[in-house]
Model the fold of this input.
Amino acid sequence: MEATIAAIEVSDLNAFAHLDLDRALSAAGHADVAAPFGGVPIGVKQLEPVRGWPDTHASVPLADQIAPHTSTQVERLVGAGALLVGSTTSSEFGAVNLTRTVLHGVTRNPWSRDRTPGGSSGGSAAAVAGGIVALATASDGGGSIRIPAGFCGLVGLKSTYGRIPRSPDAHYSNLTVTVGCVSRSVRDTARWFDVTSGHDARDPLSLPAAGGWESGLGSNVESLAGARVAFVPDWGGATVSPAMWDVLTDVADSLVATVGLSRVDGADTSLPRMGRAWGLSGAIGMFAQLGERWPACADDLTPEVRYALTASEGKYSAEARADIEQRRADVNEAMARIFDPADGVDFVITASNPDVAFAADGPLPDTFGGIAAGNGNNGRLTFPANFHGCPAISVPAGMVDGLPVGLQIVGRHFAEPDLLELALVLERERPWPLTSISASAPAAR
Done:
């Protein structure tokens, strides 16, 4: 804990929005190191409540709010011995995939300070990749675990919807958000879900406890031999950097050969567009959070949130709701076709991001390497798993221009153990750095 505090004091990443170091240090004095996370300092994404901590949603208009309760995920982590260091920075309302807000400024990528760690779990990813903490909570409603994991060289598992309860006071919004972590290793992620998963009656959509994910690691890889996999560079209608795709294809080919997977070329992996429906349904939650503060607070918001609210105002109606639900149904039908046990594939391999991390203070890019990427490109690779509720994992897969790139593997509902198994193969065959080589933090690496 003392090393963590020292790392925070010298860090220039701006990874934390709030610190509770005295309480964390006190807890470290009587930590039960035999517990699953006994004595391990962790960060908590600032969109996740901890009783008594600021509950700002990274937004200036909500700067004075204090959380009245602690999330079930965090309660379970504390019960497993984790030490809560503080809240990690997030994009405002988790609405965009870079972490730069009016309230807390710019959070930076440990691999290059002029690049973003991604969003919305950017502070969590920066803190873990920068060697400040070993683990941090994260959430993923449109890619907010996988995007920063890919940008920062971390493991990021977006689980099956409901795997970890979102209680108490669970709000479902557009039914896309799952909670979890960003970590440095597959084993850490497996242990996280062993500790935090399990049904809570206050979140009736939460699933029964998984359990045994860590102990099962490495024991089921033989059963995956022959599993069918499609390589899809344009997943969700995205355009991926050719340089990145070359790196990812090499890693994916190695995974196929090592495990004995069966690559399926020419599979129909087409999907309907879903970004507009995701954006409009998500804006409802932001309107609700701001309440009567909107529109007077418009100038206090980040440009992306201000634009999203302005563009969405008055657009939500019975007809819009019906369109959103039809788009969700269309996505579900398409995903069921892609993953059909008889005629489809077992896994889709794609990128976690269209390109390497972009500028820390934005704007969102529409080009890479001089090649047009298309507006709205960011997020298309990750939206499908959110809309369908199936699991997907981002695994470190090498470097492009000195920056990490992530390989995303998408599977059927409840296939997290298989995704972790595949990730473990990559971790063993092609180990990745545990923290950024450019991180200034003195914490143990």
